[in-house]
Structure formats: C-alpha cells, structure tokens
C-alpha cells in the first residue's frame, strides 16, 4: 500500500504523490492517440497510421527524458532515484506525466492491433504488454518508477525505424533511415539500456533489504517481477539486434560487386 511515511520514502521516493491523477491522464492519452489515428487521412493505411502514432510517441518520450537529463541532478546510486519515484520538489515529479502518456499510447496501439490485422504483430503485442505491466505497476506503486521513465529514451531508435517504413517507396531516404535505425538501436537499446539496467540491478539488493526492514512484501514482489520483465525486454532487444545485423550483412553481400577473374595462360 502506497503511503507518504518517511520510512518508505528512503527506497520508494515521494513521486508520484497520492493525489496524482494517474488513471485520468492515461485515459486522456488513450483518447488523444485514438483521435489522432482516426483524424489522419483515410488514404493512409492503418499500418502507416500506427507508425505515425508511434513516431509521435517516441519523439515526445525522448524529448521528455532529454529535458530531465539537462535540468536535473543525476544520482542513480541513490536507491529511490533509480528504483523509486525520486525526491519531492525535484524534476522527478514530472516523470509520471510521461509514464501516463506512454501507457495511454501503448493501450491505444494494442486496441488498434486488435481492430486491424495488418497492424498486428506477436512481437509488438508481447512488447506492449510487458512495457504496460512494468510502467503502470510502477506509476501506481512507485516501485521502479524512475527507471521506467529513463528507459523511454530507448524510443529514439523507434523514430528512424518508423520513418524507414513510412518512406519505403523512396529508396535513398529509406536507406538513410535504415542506417540511422541500426546505429540508434545499438546506442540506445544495447549501450544506454544496458547502463541503466546495470544501475537497476546494482540497487535491487539494497531496495529489497530496505523494504524487508519494514515488512513491505508488496514492493519486494513487485520489484522481482519487474526485474524479470526487464530482463525479458533485454533478451528481446538482443534478438532484434541479431536480426538487424543479419539483415545488414545479407544486404552488404548483395551490394558487393562480383570479383572479376582474368584468365591466365
């Protein structure tokens, strides 16, 4: 049970506050993304519409995390600043807005997948459900809240990925975004994501010890579940990285000119 007691703040932090309108913001986000989807021209296919929505979400998420890094003091070794909600009266208070916005987007995108078979993808459905479980549980209980927000920066690779598909008929632009996608995927989801995960895993034993001191079994169970789910997202990213490398390797082999062999006598 989420409370404002000081003994819980040392590992859960103070954000979001108990009166923060989480459900209302998620609902508004769902409605907003749904309106954008249906207000886009009917000449655009549902698949491309979903990519446009995804690009908007990615841009907003990356911008929010970038602003946080520019305006906030960073200390990921403090337990409640990586596995909690951070301190009251700081920029950590604004993280919940981004999480609610993202939750609304993922729910909306799941509904779109259910309505349109052309948009449906087993990998995307799995990814969305896992991200929703992690993010929503965190914003309601503060458990892992900051780390969920920081992971939104990984969405930077989603931008060139979507633009690559949107401009698939323009080969030069498509190839440019394909290269940018490969680069940003490695930098954001493998390098940056791994660094954040290292801070997360480093803080877990201390978080569990603090929670155990106050018999907070709910937080302990939640953090263990979230760690397992985060680990699954790391495996999913590795799987995607292998696919990207294989595709790029196959493409480079096709583009490689054949070696001419001169007949010698």
Automatic annotation (TrEMBL):
GO-annotated biological processes: lipid homeostasis
Spans traversing the lipid bilayer: 20-39, 51-70, 95-116, 123-143, 179-201, 221-245
Subcellular location: Membrane
TLC domain span: 43-253
Cross-referenced PROSITE patterns: TLC
Keyword list, A-Z: Membrane, Transmembrane, Transmembrane helix
Major place of residence: membrane
Domain of life (superkingdom): Eukaryota
Pfam families per record: TRAM_LAG1_CLN8
Membrane topology qualifier: Multi-pass membrane protein
GO cellular component: endoplasmic reticulum; membrane
Protein name per the record: TLC domain-containing protein
């Amino acid at each position: 049970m989420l409370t404002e007691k000081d003994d819980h703040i040392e590992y859960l932090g103070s954000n979001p506050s108990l009166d923060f309108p989480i459900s209302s913001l998620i609902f508004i986000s769902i409605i907003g993304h749904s309106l954008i989807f249906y207000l886009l021209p009917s000449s655009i296919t549902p698949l491309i519409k979903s990519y446009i929505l995804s690009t908007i979400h990615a841009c907003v998420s990356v911008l929010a995390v970038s602003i946080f890094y520019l305006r906030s003091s960073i200390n990921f070794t403090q337990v409640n600043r990586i596995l909690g909600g951070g301190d009251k009266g700081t920029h950590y208070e604004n993280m919940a807005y981004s999480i609610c916005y993202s939750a609304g987007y993922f729910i909306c995108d799941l509904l779109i997948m259910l309505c349109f078979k052309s948009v449906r993808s087993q990998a995307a459905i799995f990814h969305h459900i896992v991200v929703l479980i992690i993010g929503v549980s965190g914003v309601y209980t503060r458990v892992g809240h900051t780390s969920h927000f920081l992971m939104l920066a990984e969405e930077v690779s989603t931008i060139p990925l979507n633009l690559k598909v949107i401009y698939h008929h323009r080969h030069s632009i498509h190839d440019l975004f394909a290269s940018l996608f490969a680069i940003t995927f490695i930098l954001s989801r493998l390098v940056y994501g791994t660094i954040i995960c290292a801070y997360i895993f480093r803080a877990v034993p201390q978080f569990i010890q603090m929670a155990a001191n106050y018999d907070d079994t709910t937080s302990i169970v939640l953090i263990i579940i979230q760690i397992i789910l985060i680990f699954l997202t790391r495996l999913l990213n590795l799987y995607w990285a292998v696919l990207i490398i294989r595709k790029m390797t196959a493409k480079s082999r096709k583009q490689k000119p054949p070696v001419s062999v001169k007949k010698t006598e």
